[in-house]
Here is the input.
Amino acid sequence: MSPTSSSGGGQTELPASSDLWTETRPGTYGCGGCNLHVYSSEWRVPLDKGWVFFAHSEPNTVLTGIDSPQEAYGMDPNAPGNMIEVHCRRCGSHLGHILLVEGEPLHCINGRSLTFEPRDT
Ligand SMILES: [Zn+2]
Here is the structure.
């Protein structure tokens, strides 16, 4: 694990650059900057794209901002509007983006922006 940058800045990591994208155990996902509990495994969406996808964040844990046009990320250039950036409410760390994936708005999160705490079952 490399140290997590908490400076924000909106960079997107390369696909599959964190092991978390294949994490399937139940547990909680924390902000890499301040460890605020931002996502839970219940909301994971299993997509084979190299990032960590969630249908929802934990309530009131992330804020959104307007990022570059979707085309800049190699997304569908006909998609309406700009990318929506997601960052931690508490420390402001950039976490990822909200994307339309097959018609569903999903949180597409950089694995290296998260910590994972497996839950004891
Ligand atoms: Zn944070």
